[in-house]
Amino acid sequence: xxxxxxxxxxxxxxxxKGNTVNIAVFAxxxxxYPLLVEQMTVARMTAFFKGLVLGEIxxxxxxxxxxxxxxxxxxxxxxxxxxxxxxxxxxxxxSNILRFEIEVPDSxxxx
Length: 111
Hints:
By secondary structure, the protein is α+β, with helices and mostly antiparallel strands.
């Protein structure tokens, strides 16, 4: 197994409403989707976003489009207009999640 960053096998879209962030992760190929389901658990997402997401994270599986959707509560330090963070918008979370590491079989030949 090789470790790659999520950006090598998927892409993401994200946004915010108030203090909640929505992150959708789409597998670039149907063979990658099972890896996302297996490895992008709520526990791992909670650890990955420690210190940024202070509330609950819910995960929704969308197998018909090979995607996962994460809804992160208490993620924006009160919301875009009241946060003192430099990167306080939900779109930043989409870029951030692409650094998440995924283990892929060597046979996948992901660079």
